[in-house]
């Protein structure tokens, strides 16, 4: 009877399985069209406009533009600033990872939260906070008599200031990468080295750091990419200091006139993309040469700080005080007075800037409303796409799946301003069937968000797929369930925590985004991210500070919400969770 029952079911399976496979083939085609239209085609249009401005390759024009003294200087500045900032970020991030992963530092979770927090805050807000903190009119250092004399040139308006802020801002990226590598160092190797008498710095130098080199170089690559494409800090400090970089030249090129303005901007964007890819490839090559790929059955034990506990902990907390508490306090102090330079006293404190930002300034309210709608729309579209793409990458691998993964990662890894240029070129001309272009509308910003944040949404979801038993999906498939039914009824309930983490990460990143949207905003479509730069350029520094404080408050609220869900999330999904 069981044999007869099995034979009776076999034809049914033969009919159902091809239908399920056809559903998966349709899903793969839909994902290819989505990624192709939003990532591959715009980037291809960018390369074509840069290299073939009139339909033919013009080497003379390329040499003439790239050999221009101003562009040559901006290229050298970009390379030097990115390399120096990466070195600073690597040193600071590695030291922080060693302290967090291998020591018994007290209040470690709170310190890690504070160390990673600047990474979640928009870079233009960080730059404005540091400018207010160390200006001659500093609301924090001024009452203490530590502010610079009036009329003194601001020290951050320089190449050194740009390097300092970029290095400190990107240190958490290195920290997260190195900490993950340190957790994979076999505890047996450390115990064996200690048994041979290795202690302190020699143990770190000879055993720990060589095993963590892969993570160090991976973190350095992330820091380099972030430094080279960080528009917020380079614009807030570099433009007033007259330190040109490629990213600020691209920003200014948008306002140029002439038939070749867009093609010249595309060529600069392509040069920036080339430097980014070259830096990533070099770092990856160095990492492969030194990566010793080890697996640990358990995390290495934390070493007692002993008599060094007090000075080390004091130094660690002093770092957070100087690099986080002081700038943000100065930002808040500036937002609580009516004019820059006004002392912060009981008589001068006012909430006028906050009420103006929230209720009376039409431009800010419209920009925030637009950002909120764009962000919610981005989350609503990308989460289902990421769930479906994660299914293909994890359980149906192939060359198409690998190509989709590379395309989505490339759009996220490249500086956001390059995506902005690509979207301008791709959506400037009238689209088929629509008869109009999308440039200057919210739709081109929406397309840029979908392209830029797909990889960010995908990462937590891939971690969730690694924890799901695939047999449930196979059983549902054999029972005749289609791909969309399986994703909805089998996969999605198991992925719920990872989906929530992905939604929070995308929301936090997109709501205050500036790198991509700064070239795409117009009088009809403003977002809140570039608003700080526009307000500061217009002389409304106190209002800009209030908007920055509101952004920080929103980030803190979202991070706090994520911590409430932290126990249900896969390990490593939330970077601020120790």
Structure in words:
The chain is mainly α and 578 residues long. The protein has 22 helices and no strands. The protein has helices spanning 2-51, 59-66, 69-102, 108-120, 123-133, 159-183, 187-195, 200-211, 213-228, 231-241, 246-253, 261-290, 309-335, 352-360, 362-395, 399-413, 416-427, 442-465, 470-478, 483-511, 531-537, 541-564. The chain is globular, with a radius of gyration of 26 Å.
Features:
mainly alpha, disordered N terminus, globular, 578 residues, 72% helix
Task: Detail the topology: elements first, then pairings.
Layout: H1 2-51, H2 59-66, H3 69-102, H4 108-120, H5 123-133, H6 159-183, H7 187-195, H8 200-211, H9 213-228, H10 231-241, H11 246-253, H12 261-290, H13 309-335, H14 352-360, H15 362-395, H16 399-413, H17 416-427, H18 442-465, H19 470-478, H20 483-511, H21 531-537, H22 541-564
Helix pairs in contact: 1-12, 1-16, 1-17, 3-6, 3-9, 4-6, 4-13, 5-10, 5-13, 5-22, 6-9, 6-10, 9-12, 11-12, 12-17, 13-22, 14-22, 15-18, 15-20, 16-18, 17-18, 18-20, 19-20, 21-22
Q: What is the tally of beta strands?
A: 0
Taking Cα atoms only, what radius of gyration do you get, to the nearest Å?
26 Å
Helix percentage range? over 70%
Averaging pLDDT over every residue, what do you get? 83
The fraction of residues assigned to DSSP E strands is under 5%
Indicate the structural class. mainly alpha
Order of helices and strands: HHHHHHHHHHHHHHHHHHHHHH
In terms of per-residue confidence, which ranges show pLDDT below 50 for 5 or more consecutive residues? 1-17
Characterize the main sheet: none
Ends distance = 57 Å
Query: Based on CA inertia axes, which overall geometry fits?
Result: globular
Number of helices: 22
């Amino acid at each position: 009877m069981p044999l007869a029952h099995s034979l009776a079911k076999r034809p049914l399976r033969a009919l159902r399985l091809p239908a399920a496979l056809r559903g998966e083939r349709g899903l793969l085609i839909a994902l290819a069209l989505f990624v192709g239209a939003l990532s591959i085609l715009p980037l291809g249009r960018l390369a074509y406009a840069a290299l073939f401005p009139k339909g033919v390759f013009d080497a003379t024009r390329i040499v003439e533009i790239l050999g221009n003294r101003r562009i040559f200087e901006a290229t050298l500045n970009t390379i030097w600033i990115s390399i120096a900032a990466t070195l600073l970020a690597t040193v600071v991030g590695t030291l922080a990872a060693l302290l967090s992963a291998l020591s018994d530092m007290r209040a470690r979770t709170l310190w890690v939260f504070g160390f990673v927090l600047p990474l979640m805050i928009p870079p233009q807000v960080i730059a404005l906070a540091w400018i207010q903190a160390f200006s001659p009119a500093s609301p924090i250092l001024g009452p203490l008599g530590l502010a610079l004399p009036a009329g003194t040139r601001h020290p951050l308006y320089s190449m050194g200031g740009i390097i300092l802020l970029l290095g400190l801002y990107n240190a958490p990226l290195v920290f997260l990468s190195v900490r993950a590598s340190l957790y994979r160092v076999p505890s047996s190797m450390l115990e064996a080295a200690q048994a041979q008498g290795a202690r302190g710095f020699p143990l770190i130098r000879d055993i720990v750091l060589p095993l963590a080199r892969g993570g160090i170089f991976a973190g350095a690559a992330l820091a380099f990419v972030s430094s080279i494409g960080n528009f917020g800090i380079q614009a807030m400090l570099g433009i007033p200091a007259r330190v040109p970089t490629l990213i600020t030249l691209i920003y200014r090129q948008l306002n140029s006139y002439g038939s070749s303005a867009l093609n010249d901007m595309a060529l600069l964007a392509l040069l920036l993309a080339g430097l980014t890819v070259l830096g990533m490839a070099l770092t990856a090559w160095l990492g492969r040469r030194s990566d010793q790929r080890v697996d640990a059955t358990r995390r290495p034990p934390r070493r007692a700080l002993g008599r060094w506990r007090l000075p080390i902990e004091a130094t660690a907390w002093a770092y957070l005080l100087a690099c986080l508490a002081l700038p943000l306090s100065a930002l808040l102090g500036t937002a609580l007075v009516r004019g820059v330079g006004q002392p912060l006293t009981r008589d001068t404190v006012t909430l006028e800037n906050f009420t103006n930002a929230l209720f009376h300034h039409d431009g800010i309210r419209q920009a925030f409303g637009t950002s909120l709608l764009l962000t919610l729309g981005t989350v609503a579209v990308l989460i289902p796409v990421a769930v479906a793409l994660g299914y293909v990458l994890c359980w149906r691998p192939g060359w198409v799946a690998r190509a989709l993964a590379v395309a989505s990662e490339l759009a996220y890894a490249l500086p956001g301003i390059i995506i902005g240029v690509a979207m301008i070129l791709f959506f400037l001309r009238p689209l088929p069937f629509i008869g109009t272009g999308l440039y200057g509308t919210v739709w081109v910003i929406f397309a840029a968000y979908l392209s830029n944040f797909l990889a960010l949404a995908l990462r937590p979801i891939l971690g969730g797929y690694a924890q799901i038993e695939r047999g449930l999906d196979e059983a549902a498939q054999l029972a005749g369930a289609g791909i969309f039914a399986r994703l909805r009824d089998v996969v999605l309930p198991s992925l719920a925590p990872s989906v929530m983490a992905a939604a929070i990460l995308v929301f936090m990143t997109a709501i205050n985004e500036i790198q991509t949207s700064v070239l795409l905003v117009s009088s009809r479509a403003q977002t809140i991210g570039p608003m700080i730069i526009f307000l500061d350029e217009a002389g409304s520094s106190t209002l800009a500070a209030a908007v920055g404080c509101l952004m920080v408050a929103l980030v803190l609220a979202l991070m706090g919400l994520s911590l409430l869900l932290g126990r249900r999330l896969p390990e490593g999904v939330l970077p601020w969770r120790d």
